[in-house]
Design a protein that fits this description.
By secondary structure, the chain is mostly helical. Helix content is 65%, strand content 7%. The longest helix is centred in the middle third of the chain and has 53 residues.
Amino acid sequence: MEEKLLSEMFVKRKSLAYRFDYALEMVDYKEEKIQFLIDHSVIYKNGDYLELDTQYLEFFENVLGVNEEINTSYINENIRSVRENIDYFLNEKNEIRRYNYLRFIKNTFKKIALNTLKNVVDLRRNIDTTFKNEPNYKNKKAKLENLDLKRRDILDLIHQTEKLISSEEKTFFKAALDEELIGIIIQVKHDLIECSHNLIETEKQIIEFLNQIKYQSGILEKLRKVKYLKDQFIIQAGTDIIKVLSQHNLLVFEKQPTYPVKLSPDFLATDEAFETIKRISSRIKTKAEIKIPVAENISRDQLDTQIQEEVLINLEEVKNNFMATGNNLFNFLMNYDFLKEVSFAERVTLYCQLISQYEELFEITSSYETFQDIEYTLVYPKSN
């Protein structure tokens, strides 16, 4: 549980602090485990927050190679140690002790090259991060200037190392005559040359960033001055802004045209369009309340039950009554009592319907008569 907590705190080390409540959850609410780490100075408590001890934090960052701090003093210390051990090597007559001094010198040269490369990489990363993420212009400029000082320190240490190898300790390199040392020195020279080239590019980058900050700061100062004059309502009287702006026809003053794209009805009918509309609608936050229209109250009269009766004509019953008579069908229907008002046109329609449905029961003659400009066939019940 303690390992899990320390791992979590290390991952979130960039945060301001780690809450004590979160730590309790990581150790299954066993507070004594947190207290054990506090008692052994692995972590320390600051109010409601916990933080990793600086010594352990630096140790983990150095072991994992994630320390972004630019530390030139470590390289300087290594150069000083190399010089000291070279003197010990030249003064020593015992071969075993000379070998130990030589081994220390070789390892230190490797550390110098490795740390120089790491510092150059961290320097470029810090410069880029500062320029992009620092919101305060004054702090951004100050941080970039301090990073430029570190660049000069690294460059000075490279020159010291190159001078140490090339001119200051020629006697040592002739006396040592070690092939591994020669290989290490060649690699160190190669790494330092690479670092020098990177530092030249870094210097150009810093100068470019500082110029951009200076340019942006100048524009900001001018905008502030214009805003002050505008707020005081003296911008037109105290400046020639109208004259200056009238002499320019820049595109930025033009009203930006919009080109709405109308979607096709076929696409709007698809599920994909529906999901897209819902997603866009969720982004639009408006305070306007959409009022859903409410229907008027239903009157009590509309709720009352109303019965409507309709008298339907039973064709079967009409047919049976017709079969019991000897009259022709047309006259029968014209005089038939349907118990409701039936128009002449409806009686003609019934005439046609009865003939079509009961043709086999009727005797359809070839004789015709006329009534109100309608010529009809004489139809009688078929005799058995």
